[in-house]
Automatic annotation (TrEMBL):
CDD domains: USP_KdpD-like. Keywords: Kinase, Transferase. Signal peptide: none annotated. The keyword Kinase applies. SUPFAM superfamilies: Adenine nucleotide alpha hydrolases-like (SSF52402). The keyword Transcription regulation does not apply. This is K+-sensing histidine kinase KdpD. InterPro entries: Histidine_kinase_KdpD (IPR052023), Rossmann-like_a/b/a_fold (IPR014729). GO terms for molecular function: kinase activity. It comes from Lederbergia wuyishanensis.
Length: 224
């Protein structure tokens, strides 16, 4: 149960998009919320439905969810399958949660897909209340990704438990443990990559090496 914040007249919304700077924006918003002792919300918007996210996007979402919990955010908001302009989505969320301060990255106008002309900030200012402040955070362009692994388009797969281990297969059998999407690493002859599945409403992602799951799966089986 979250603690009641002291300054309910202030609330902060951090808007993140895919890339290495999302964490920096969230931590900046957390610092501001801690100073003001007010609620923190985190938002990301995507025109695709969540089920169609690739492994990279899913990885960012899960990382941001974990960071939201770490930073004691009130809510991590994923607006997927969203066809409206991003500025309108942000304005709608700001109104719903009584947001008084919005945090965005300096290069947001280049990252949000539908903002192709003019300044994203100016577009957003036209949509939001005059009582909301916008904070533009300079992004660190020296941040680099990890191993820069690329993945093929996801295909449906299954995890089968054998001798205490989980094996990847692509045919539905009676004794399967999990059904999900497998993203194979580009440039490998083996089934190396990531397997994403949903269990009890939560998304899990495990690494697969030569058909074998190398991460520990602690959840009970999702078969009857």
């Amino acid at each position: 149960m979250k603690k009641v914040k002291g300054r309910m007249d202030e609330s902060i919304l951090v808007c993140v998009y895919y890339g290495p700077n999302g964490e920096r924006l969230i931590r900046r918003g957390h610092k501001m919320a801690s100073m003001l002792n007010c609620p923190l919300y985190i938002l990301t918007v995507d025109p695709l439905p969540y089920d169609e996210f690739d492994a990279e996007k899913s990885g960012y979402i899960e990382k941001w969810k974990e960071l939201a919990e770490e930073c004691d955010a009130e809510e991590f908001i994923l607006q997927d399958d969203e066809k409206r302009p991003v500025a309108k989505v942000i304005a709608g969320i700001a109104h719903k949660y009584n947001i008084t301060q919005i945090v965005i990255g300096q290069s947001a106008q280049n990252r949000w897909e539908e903002i192709t002309k003019g300044s994203f900030v100016n577009v957003l200012l036209r949509e939001i209340s005059s009582f909301i402040d916008i904070h533009i955070v300079a992004l660190d362009r020296t941040i680099k990704g990890g191993e820069d692994i690329a993945y093929e388009t996801g295909v449906r797969g299954y995890l089968l438990k054998e001798n205490g281990e989980y094996r990847l297969c692509f045919t539905c059998q009676k004794n399967i443990s999990y059904e999900g999407i497998f993203y194979k690493e580009i440039g490998t002859d083996f089934n190396n990559g990531l397997f994403k599945f949903v269990h009890n409403g939560k998304t899990y992602q495990v690494h697969v090496t030569e058909d074998k799951v190398i991460d520990q799966i602690k959840e009970p089986l999702n078969i009857m």
